[in-house]
Amino acid sequence: MKDSGVDGRIIELFRSGDGVVSGAALSRLLGVSRTAVWKHVKGLRASGYLIEAVPSKGYRLVSSPKVLTQLDLSAGLETKRVGSSIICLKETESTNKVAFTLAEEGAAEGTVVIADAQSAGKGRLGRIWLSPPGVNLYCSVVLRPAIAPMAACQLTFLSVVAVARAIESCTTLTPQIKWPNDILINGKKVAGLLNEMNAETEKVNFVVLGIGVNLNLDMASISESLLRHPATSLLQEGGVEVDRLAFTRALLVELDRLYDVFLAEGEAPVRAEWLERSAIKGRRVKVSQGEREFVGMVQGVDAFGALLVQLSDGKVETVLSGDVALV
């Protein structure tokens, strides 16, 4: 559980109670005076929390700010590493860029950077990830695994599976994974992942896991000319607005659990779940690598995330990069 100070503990107590929490109870549980409790409540209100004073009973949290906040995300977050530090920004060029810089400056493992909007969101192969404010999740996580650089690509399994699990826990939708780093709902892209690494010859200094998920995006507001592939959002597919706070907390918990498994047992258990959720295993696909294209049957992925595609002559191609489309 992360310690986010008195403000964070107040938010946590509001959540864990049955609605109204008395000032006396807050004072006793926090170990501060009633006057201090009032000052913290006043500060939370100034930060956008709607806290109602109930006469003769205490305080009640009515609503949180519309944007994701460090206090809301950290309060009672049961993780070992992911979320050790959470930084929430109104807008930035790219959360990956911010997280990478922080990691170079020594940010702790598990540091999370979240933005309400991005002006230059980064996608795979230098593409742009559309990042309007107030509707989606744009976040990056710093990890420092003691692994060789060639094994860093295995961390893609973690972030993709974590997003799939979070979608299942917060909606009734069934996500599928498309190699190498996309999440599909009904065949349309709802999330993309982008990992970036800083390493030396024999060791990884850090990896930044970049995660973008279309939660409540109104697809009618996005010009199709800006979309390289069919895209969607959880709202569009499920017809119900997704709680961004609940989704983000679920994602951080799942990512932390999977990272724990990865550190203890290696990539095999996480890769197995990745394959179970794959949208293309056993399917015919067309692989495009610049001017080269070929068609084959997907056999799976190897331990380093390369796609294994069997051609008509029986030869198996190991695909390290490129675009893959179902035939």
Number of helices: 9
What percentage of amino acids are in beta strands? 25-35%
User: For this structure, what is the CATH class of the largest domain?
Assistant: Alpha Beta
Radius of gyration: 22 Å
Largest beta sheet: strand ordering: 4-5-6-10-9-8-7
CATH-defined topology of the largest domain: BirA Bifunctional Protein, domain 2
Average pLDDT across residues?
89
How helix-rich are the residues, as a percent range? Answer: 25-40%
Q: Tell me the span between the first and last alpha carbons.
A: 46 Å
Order of helices and strands: HEHHEEHEHEEHEEEEHHHEEEEE
Provide the CATH architecture of the largest domain: 2-Layer Sandwich
Report the uncertain regions: none
For CATH, the homologous superfamily of the largest domain is named as Bira Bifunctional Protein, Domain 2
Total number of strands: 15
EC number: 6.3.4.15
Family: Belongs to the biotin--protein ligase family.
InterPro entries: aa-tRNA-synth_II/BPL/LPL, ArsR-like_HTH, Bifunct_BirA, Biotin_CoA_COase_ligase, BPL_C, BPL_LPL_catalytic, HTH_11, Transcriptional_repressor_C
Catalytic activity: biotin + L-lysyl-[protein] + ATP = N(6)-biotinyl-L-lysyl-[protein] + AMP + diphosphate + H(+)
